[in-house]
Write a structure and sequence with these properties.
By secondary structure, the protein is mainly alpha-helical. The protein contains 4 helices and no strands.
Length: 127
Amino acid sequence: MSTHIIAESRTTKTGLFWLVLLASAVLEAVWATALGLSNGFSELLPTVVFAVTAALSMLGLGIAVKRIPLGTAYAVWVGIGAALTVGWAMISGVEPASPLKLLFIAGIVGCAAGLKALPADKGTNAE
């Protein structure tokens, strides 16, 4: 097998781990929102949604760190999840929106994208 084909296959496989990480970050926003709606785990449906999505989110993060360094994966997972959680809270009217808040959320997303865009170091399990 040529080196180019091996490198392309590795990049494609790593891309799948990034997709799993992104899906896990979305699930983090879902479980965080459900946690807020559970009223201290006294509301059944939000509590069930919280439990299922928290478990799936953690599972996805665990899978992602097989190929993405833990620090990078965790920062992206938390950053994207937090940005989506705050974004949803603003859209749904639970939390007020402001230009500065939007700017800072954009900064979080930009930093997460920057971590993905960094070149991989040789000898690590990164892309």
